[in-house]
## 1
Amino acid sequence: MRTVAVVGTGLIGTSAALALTRRGLHVHLEDADPDAARTAASLGAGTTETPDGPVDLAIIAVPPALVGKVLADCQRRGLARWYTDVASVKSGPRAEVTALGCDTVHYIGSHPMAGRERSGPLAARADLFEGRPWVLTPTPDTDTETLNAALELVALCGAMPIVMDAAAHDRAVALVSHAPQLFSSLVAARLEHADETAVRLSGQGVRDVTRIAASNPAMWVDILSANAGVVADILEELAADLGDTVTALRALQTADEGERRSGAAGIEAVMRRGNAGQARIPGKHGAPPTRYETVAVVLGDQPGELGRLFGEVGALGVNIEDVAIEHSSGQQVGFVQLSVAPAAVKRLTVALREHGWSVRD
């Protein structure tokens, strides 16, 4: 594969274009908003020039409701030999593609499981897909060459291919992506009119839960509209769990000892279920989850401090598996939480303290 057309230069389309141009492919950019395409081109994602003939692959990077219409137009123009879309919902677009009479032999649905809370070409990153799952949902008549082109695209972007049925994909993303987005927004909405004193107490927990609440509402309306029923089913189940949890919390306030014990058992049960579910989330590079321990270091708000800390940790031969920064409200310090292998915790803690770092116990 040498030439690609990206139709839709938002976050996902532009990120794919950046990844492909870095690998030496010639990428042509299209968008209903010419300014968006020009912005992507200015970032080095490709060219807005029309290709001389059919490109090898066209990537349809538009909202789910537009996939069928845009694919039909691209195929009518003979834009490419093979086609894929990267919409986050697959069943609806596939039904529309079939209803419009599109060529499904040379088309395969796909969905890179990557994104950011920001949208648009300026939020794009060439490494957005590295190490991330990229789902492929072939139709019954998708041919081998089309599947191979999609697999090559996934490899060029550094992602991991997963072949799934379209309906199974939609159920899965409703659980791991769409419902969490709404839940994050619901929690963040509680902060909108909260007392300023309460908001200033926000720590890393609420920051983690509400991070994706900063996402673009219009974009998510498009996504959720295409998968609304499945997401509603999951939220109904979550609502039932919330109801049981509220009942358990109320029981903890009663004078009856038996009811308090029942309430405590209910809270412990939901927490343990959460422990079990969280433990199933894959670790780095999709590997089985690994338990790391955290070393928390106080970090001053001066240029170069974070780099100096990372440099000293690297010099000790300790690999940082993950990192989080917790800011201290109203103070010029923060806490850097370094996730490392359990065997390295004691050695790292002692060495950092010897080098003058303040490490929290």
## 2
Amino acid sequence: MRTAAVIGTGLIGTSAALALSARGITVHLRDADPDAARTAASLGAGTVEEPEGPVDLAIIAVPPAMIATVLADCQRQNLARWYTDVASVKAGPRRDIAALGCDTVHYIGSHPMAGAERTGPLAARADLFEGRTWVLTPTPETDTDTLNAALELVALCGAVPVVMDAAAHDRAVALVSHTPQLLASLVAARLEHAEENAVRLAGPGIRDTTRIAGSNPLMWVEILSANAGMVADILEELAADLDGTVAGLRALQAADEAKREQGATAVEDVLRRGNAGRARIPGKHGAPPTRYETVVVAIGDQPGELARLFAEAGRVGVNIEDVLIEHSTGQQVGLVQLMVAPSAAGVLTAALQERGWRVRSDR
């Protein structure tokens, strides 16, 4: 691949353009909003000049409802040898593409499993897709050269390719992406009119749960509209679980001991099923989930403190597998949770304490 076109210079389109440009690919940028394309170009994502002839690959990064129309326009213009889109749903756009009679031999659907709460070209990063799954959904007509072009795109962006059926992809993202977005928003909505004293008690649990609730509502309406049925099916199942949990919690308040026991069993069942589901989420580098131990360190809010802490771990040969930071409300101090291999927790704890850090190991 030597040349590419990106149609739609939002977060995903501009990030892909930045990654390709960094690899020496000449990228031509288009957007319905010329200012967005010029902004992306100013960031080094490519050029707003039109290509002199067909590029190797056109990447269509527009909302799902617009994929087919944009693809048809690009193919009429002979913009590229091969085409892909990066929409977060695949079955609906594929039906629209078939209805418009687009060339599906030189087209393949795709979806990089990456994103951020912020949108637009200014939120883009060349490393956005590093190590992330990138789903490819070829049509029955997609030829080998088109698939190879998409695989090259994925490789250039540092992602990991996975080939799936379009409908299976949509069922999967309804469960692991679209429904969590709505649930995060529903939980965060409870905070809108909450008392200030309650909000001030917010800790890492509520922050983690509601992080993606900061996403762009209009963008998510477009995504959910394209996968509404599958998301609604999952929400119905969740609603049944919620009803059972509410009934269990009410029973815990009953005077009758037998009812209280039934309520406790119902609530425990939901929590245990949650444990089982959480355990199935792949761990580091896609490996089976690994149980780490947590070393909690109090750290001051000064420049260089976090780097010093990581350097201390490196000096004793401990690899930090994951990290979380909890900030204390109204104080210039935080708690850093370092996830390490069980065999390393004691070594790291002792070494940090010896060097004057306030530390504990959550075994």
